[in-house]
Write a structure and sequence with these properties.
This protein is of the alpha+beta class. The chain contains two helices and four strands, in the order βαββαβ. Strand 2 and strand 3 form a beta hairpin.
Length: 85
């Protein structure tokens, strides 16, 4: 898929965000703060060799394109995360 093609998804659908940070508990608390009472599954994805960086997968159902991008922007803006994919 090139950059000009738009991703086509049928909503609602399952979506996974990968979040990277340095403190697992802080990251999990931030996810729950952002998604509030929505159901999600948070699982460890990887940890750097020195355990300085941790990546988690956040799996949940997104209702629409705007819902998906709003969650991405909220996660990206939170200080607990160094990177959101």
């Amino acid at each position: 898929m090139n950059k000009k093609q738009k991703l086509h998804l049928d909503y609602p659908c399952a979506w996974i965000y990968k979040i990277i940070g340095t403190n697992q508990d802080e990251m999990k608390n931030a996810v729950h703060e952002i998604i509030r009472d929505r159901s999600c599954k948070i699982s460890l994805s990887r940890q750097s060799e020195t355990a300085k960086y941790i990546s988690l997968n956040v799996e949940l159902t997104v209702e629409s394109e705007s819902h998906r991008t709003d969650l991405y922007e909220a996660l990206k803006a939170h200080r607990a995360f160094k990177l959101v994919l």
